[in-house]
Design brief:
Layout: H1 10-20, H2 43-56, H3 62-74
Helix pairs in contact: 2-3
Protein name: Cytochrome c oxidase copper chaperone 2
GO molecular function: copper chaperone activity; copper ion binding
Biased composition (Polar residues): 8-21
Length: 79
């Protein structure tokens, strides 16, 4: 069978050029490879917070929610 030419949409080209330049969404200087993502930071307090909220509801878990926020701030996140 004959091959069809591959056409790149503008969004793919835009994302590729952004990637080539080392940029990322919302960051002018690009991501810091040493910095954790917020979803991966403070796994212990996150687990305790999540378990408490599922079992008892958000209102009963202020202690664990605050502990997780404090941990995230200590990791450098602005929450």
């Amino acid at each position: 069978m004959g091959r069809l030419p591959i056409q790149h949409s503008p969004s793919v080209i835009s994302l590729q050029s952004q990637k080539d330049q080392g940029g990322s969404e919302g960051s002018a200087s690009g991501p810091d490879p040493k910095r954790k993502k917020i979803c991966c930071a403070c796994p212990e307090t996150k687990r305790l917070r999540d378990e408490c909220v599922v079992e008892h509801g958000e209102a009963a878990c202020a202690k664990w929610i605050e502990a997780h926020i404090k941990c995230l701030r200590a990791e450098g996140f602005n929450v």
